[in-house]
Design brief:
Number of strands: 23
Shape: globular
Structural class: alpha/beta
CATH topology of one domain: FAD/NAD(P)-binding domain
CATH class of one domain: Alpha Beta
CATH superfamily of one domain: FAD/NAD(P)-binding domain
CATH architecture of one domain: 3-Layer(bba) Sandwich
Helix content: 25-40%
Distance between the termini: 33 Å
Number of helices: 12
Radius of gyration: 21 Å
Strand content: 25-35%
Largest sheet: 9 strands, mixed
């Protein structure tokens, strides 16, 4: 089975790249060990952010750092035995979380996110899945004046980049979401951000559209990738697939493959959990909320209210330890009347992260006809379609809508 391009990884990022390439007339094979949208893209908050201008970094606040060190903060957790391995990466993250790092992240992310919703909506219309999208915006809520003041960088950047947001005092917040307990100091409403009712359904719909246009999805092991006579080959359940060009969009599994090609990047995996709940007494949320100081998101979904946790640092494949979720259940219930748990057990997902918070989008250094599209951290669902467009434009030789310089792999030195 010969193609023009092989895309490895069928999450939102890889599926979008495969679909965008197929729209440009390329014969594409999309390969994953599981079905489309069944790993990290299954468990996100379903938010397409416009204002994600501040990276998820390490704070400078000494009290918060102390709580992190003692593993007391519900927004962050770590396995003690994993700390020596992750410590060098955490130091790189700390260095990238200064003013200059935040500024560089904001400029690069704004260049992508200003096209994120438009590109999602275009793909969704073609895939007949626009009914999953909701134009309700979302709320970031604060329990204290200090919590609100702590996001002044985000609000200043939003003003500078022209992103609409509105401060809500306690009364205005209650009018917006009457079923939230009146324990909050304030909230900020972000109307440009959009949400979806079920993220997996959107990713799968993009996959269906990809196949309807002639693309081929196969289950296979990306680690079987090999290069023979200027062609890439991958073994799948239905036989070998070959193409002159390959795109690596394996998210948190990308380094498993890239190590074989002497590509080395400062890559880490942030684990996270979610669980769905019913609501008591007919309570409802019209939009997702982020309880900023407690580090979780509560999102109305097609199958209940999805409570998503912050970050857990542990070996990618370690057994689940949903300690954060247990910490957050009573905290979330104090804010909104969550009822029965609707899942038999928590879901565990893994986010691919680079210390500067930005993804790698572009050609692989020193490896002919290999393209990289991974490392989107907390914004994979948001940025998948626009990243896919940029990958497709680059592969077919068109000018890219966004300058790829901030996202090039060479910023980390490339090959070993």
């Amino acid at each position: 089975m010969t193609h023009d391009v092989i895309v490895l990884g069928a999450g939102m990022v890889g599926t979008s790249a495969a679909l965008q390439l197929t729209e440009k007339g390329r014969r594409v094979a999309l390969i994953d060990r599981r079905g489309i949208g069944e790993e990290t893209s299954f468990g996100n908050a379903g938010v397409i952010e416009r204002e994600g201008l501040v990276p998820v970094g390490i704070p400078r606040d000494i009290v918060r750092l102390f709580r992190y060190a003692l593993n007391l903060a519900p927004e962050a957790n770590y396995h003690v035995g994993f700390l020596p391995k992750i410590a060098p990466w955490l130091w790189k993250l700390f260095e990238a979380s200064d003013k200059a790092g935040i500024e560089a992240f904001a400029r690069a992310t704004d260049a992508l996110s200003r096209f994120a919703i438009v590109e999602h909506r275009r793909l969704a219309a073609a895939a007949n899945v626009s009914d999953q999208f909701r134009e309700t915006g979302w709320l970031r809520v604060y329990r204290t004046p200090k919590g609100l003041a702590g996001e002044s960088d985000l609000h200043e950047l939003a003003d500078r980049f022209g992103i609409e947001h509105r401060l809500l005092d306690r009364d205005a917040l209650h009018a917006f979401e009457p079923d939230l307990a009146r324990i909050l100091h304030a909230g900020v409403f972000w109307p440009e951000t959009q949400t979806v009712a079920w993220p997996e359904a959107v990713t799968k719909a993009y996959g269906d559209r990809f196949e309807a246009l002639g693309g081929q999805f196969s289950r296979g092991d990306a680690r079987s990738l090999r290069r023979v006579d200027e062609r890439w080959f991958v073994t799948t359940e239905t036989g070998a697939v070959s193409a002159p060009t390959v795109v690596v969009a394996l998210g948190p599994w990308s380094n498993d493959l890239l190590d074989r090609f002497d590509l080395s990047f400062p890559f880490a995996v942030k684990r996270g959990y979610h669980m769905h709940f019913a609501a008591e007494r007919g309570a409802r949320l019209a939009r997702p909320i982020v309880d900023v100081e407690m580090g979780y998101c509560l999102t109305p979904m097609a199958k209940g209210y999805r409570l998503t946790t912050g970050v857990e640092f542990a070996h990618r494949d370690a057994d689940p330890t949903p300690r954060q979720l247990e910490q957050l259940k009573p905290i979330a219930r104090d804010l909104f009347p969550l009822g029965a748990e609707l899942d038999p057990e928590p879901w565990l997902g893994r986010r691919p992260a680079l210390p500067d918070g930005l993804p790698i989008i572009g050609p692989a250094p020193g490896v002919p006809n290999m393209w990289l599209d991974f490392g989107h951290g907390h914004l994979g669902f948001t940025l998948g379609p626009i990243s896919g467009r940029l990958i497709a434009e680059g592969i077919v030789g068109e000018p890219t809508l966004v300058d790829l310089t901030p996202f090039r792999a060479e910023r980390f030195g490339g090959q070993r």
